[in-house]
C-alpha cells in the first residue's frame, strides 16, 4: 500500500516537476501606438481588453506592447498619465496587429515621415490594422485607407471624407470593419473596437468572456459589440 509519507513526497516531487516546465512564451504581439499628449482612453481601452485576454490560456501566446513614436521610454498622455513604453517605431517591432491612437493635435504626427514609413511598413506585415478616434487620419495620410470603409471620431467623419475622398467614410457606426482594417470612434467605442478585434483574433465567445470580465456588460449589452462583427 502507498504510505501517506511516500505519497506526500511523490506529490511534492510532481509539483516541483510541473513548475519546472517553462510557461508558454508569447510569440504574437499587439502594438498600441503612443506618444506625448495621446488621449488616455485610446490607450487604456485596448490595453485593458487585450491585457485581460493575455491572462487567459486561450490568448496567452499574445502580449501587448506600447510603441512610442519618439525615442523615449516614458510618455505623458493628454490627461497627465505617465506610461512606460516597450519599444519605439525605430526598433522595427514585429507585430501581428497595430492599433493607432489619437490626440487633440495630430499635425505633428501627420508630418512625421518616420512614422508614415513605419505605418506603411507595418501594413505589409501585420494581420490587422486598427485605429481609434482620429487615429484613422494617420492611416489616411499614409494612404492605408484608400478604397476601404472607415470611421473616425464622432463628428469628424465629414472632414475625413473631404480630405480623403478615396475612403468610404461611414458616419452611423461606432466600429467599422473592412477586410483587415478596423476603425472606431474614441472614448467608450474604443472598447468596442478592441473587443471586435479580439473576436477576430480569437472568437466571439472568448471576446465575450473578456467583455464580462471587465464588467462592460453593466454598461452595454453584448449585442453592441456583435453588431459590428462582419456577417458571414
Give descriptors for this structure.
Rossmann fold, 19% strand, 232 residues, 7-stranded mixed beta sheet, single chain, 38% helix, globular, two-stranded antiparallel sheet, alpha/beta
Could you spell the SSE succession in H and E letters?
A: HEHEEEEEHHEHEHEEEHHH
What average pLDDT do the residues reach? 91
Counted up, domains total 1
Radius of gyration: 20 Å
User: What is the percentage of strand-forming residues?
Assistant: 15-25%
- Major beta sheet summary: 7 strands, mixed
CATH architecture: 3-Layer(aba) Sandwich
Helicity, in percent? 25-40%
Could you list the spans in which at least 5 consecutive residues all have pLDDT below 50? Answer: 4-23
Highest CATH level, the class: Alpha Beta
What structural category arises from helix and sheet content?
Answer: alpha/beta
How would you characterize this protein structure?
This protein is of the alpha/beta class and 232 residues long. The protein has a single domain, classed as Rossmann fold (3-Layer(aba) Sandwich), CATH 3.40.50.880. The protein has nine helices and eleven strands. It has a seven-stranded mixed sheet, with helices on both faces. Helix 7 packs antiparallel against helix 8. The chain is globular. It starts with a helix and ends in a 6-residue tail after the last helix.
Task: Provide a concise account of the structure shown.
This protein is an alpha/beta fold and 232 residues long. The protein contains nine helices and eleven strands. It has one domain: 3-Layer(aba) Sandwich (Rossmann fold), CATH 3.40.50.
